[in-house]
Amino acid sequence: MDLYTSVSAVIVNDSIGAALTSTGQDVIVNNGSNLITFAADVSATVSAGSYLKIGGTATTTPVYKVKSIAAGGLLVTLDTTYQGTSATVASANVNVCNAIIYVGIRLTGLAITYKPKGIAPYNRTKFDTAIANFGSTVITNATAMTWGNGLYEQVADLEWFALGGDGIRNFMWHPIPTGRTDAVSGQYYYMVTVEYYNNDDQYVISGSKPAKALVYLFFAAGTVDAVPPSNTNYSVFKSNFNLYVPTNLEI
Which of 67, 70, 65 lies closest to 51, judged by CA? Predict the structure, then answer.
């Protein structure tokens, strides 16, 4: 994995439970490096060709093949770079795999760096997997990509686009105009879009009157996307708004 890779690929296998042999030592791992360092000698259980399950004991836990072992059994070189987060992994989650029957590859979309104000718009990795000459291999899509709903990045991008209503017409010049950003990183929002006709003679868009206009309303809804907590301001707005429309507003 490197700064330009959008997909992580790791080996997984069916070695669990009694088929795992503990190394007995914590290990220091670094994302993007194929060198891992154990707290003490593990040469009694680890050797070149061993498969290490690092970070857990499940069938979905990544597995790495040992290329070599040196420095008195402390320094191990993997045949691929470590894909997880840099950390010290406890010995209970660093095991040698035995009795391996099934082996697979797990592909995971990585987060794409987001920079607000039009520099790097919000996006997520999406890919389709196709394999050939693997017999009856099963492809399982555990989690499909979703864009999310009410994310900070989505709100910040809308704020950036709406700068056109404040008079900014060219978003390509450098330095890029900063404008105002009220969205808070890590926050989720309820969003209400109100479309109306603007018959103001000073409206900047020329043409037949009245012209359509949009108003975006965002209500902070905590930091949980799946089940956002209630928001008092949104609840009050919804109750008052519903007094004047034929169909109740619901999200």
Answer: 65
- Residue among 210, 214, 230, 234 nearest 222 (CA): 230
Tell me how far apart the alpha carbons of residues 152 and 164 are, in angstroms, rounded to a whole number. Answer: 20
pTM score: 0.67
pLDDT by residue, tens only, the chain of 251 residues: 444 568 888 999 999 999 999 999 999 999 999 999 999 999 999 999 999 999 999 999 999 999 999 999 999 999 999 999 999 999 999 999 999 998 888 888 888 888 877 778 888 888 877 777 776 777 777 777 888 888 889 988 888 877 766 666 666 665 666 666 788 888 888 888 888 777 766 655 555 667 777 788 888 887 765 455 567 787 888 888 888 877 776 65
Place of tokens 């597995």: 63
Q: Which of 6, 4, 11 is closest to 81 using CA atoms? A: 11
Q: Name 92's Cβ contacts closer than 8 Å, sequence gap at least 6.
A: 22, 57
The SS3 call for residue 207 is: coil
Write out the two tokens for 22: 């503990």
**Domains of the chain and CATH, by start:** 7-104 (2.40.30), 152-241 (no CATH)
